[in-house]
Amino acid sequence: MMNSQAGPAPAVRIDGLTVARGGRTVLHGLDLTVARGSVTGLLGPSGCGKTTLLRSIVGVQQVAAGRIDVLGAPAGGAGLRHRVGYVTQAPSVYADLTVAENLRYFAAVLGAPAGDPARVTAEVGLAGSEHRQAAQLSGGQRARVSLAAALLGTPELLVLDEPTVGLDPVLRQDLWELFHRLAEAGTTLLISSHVMDEAARCDRLLLMREGRLLADDTPAELLARTGAPDVDGAFLALVAGAVDRTPGSPS
After folding, report:
1. Which of 4, 33, 106, 163 has its CA 20 to 30 A from that of 215?
2. CA 110 to CA 152: how far, in whole Å?
3. DSSP string, 97-119
4. Would you say the C-alpha torsion 84, 86, 163, 66 has a positive or negative sign?
């Protein structure tokens, strides 16, 4: 197991997480922590197990072995429902409702303050689209509605599965700025992506391949350890075995 970081207890602690589906092991005994108030990127190619790991953290994935603690409690516990926001890859909105109606509904379910729908609508850049039906929105706009719903009630941990996929570069930049503002205010963000150029926007990186953790480093540490010019190159070096794969190991 890798060493825990000094300081406050992590937002997420995972020990020996193993997940199997259809007789095949999807996650192989993962050990990792996610520091509170950080923007942690979970990167790797499609099919490497990122979504399965996120589902396990949220508590909606059956696990074969291991322990997952989220904000000091077992993952999936009832007490975490208002403390953890989760955005899936597929937008989770009601197509026959407007943006405002979707957010008012989710706010009522969560018991969020009455002003929250307006706040999160502005934060994700949908101000002016409140009365548009979700079915009339682009895929990127529906994804932003899902993100807005996850922001309701100011969760302590945001688990975001490919939140920027399909978005234009300007909106992607705006959302990453929002993610860092949230982290500065104390929210912990765990964000998956298969786009390696988003790695530089993260405080820490978890690199995955075939259900295993290849690296758990800051972007600078990862590049120093592999001698690669970018995260793409670092990932390839780790896969090729050109450097020690042990997460957090020195160069």
Report:
1. 163
2. 8
3. SBHHHHHHHHHHHHT--TTHHHH
4. positive
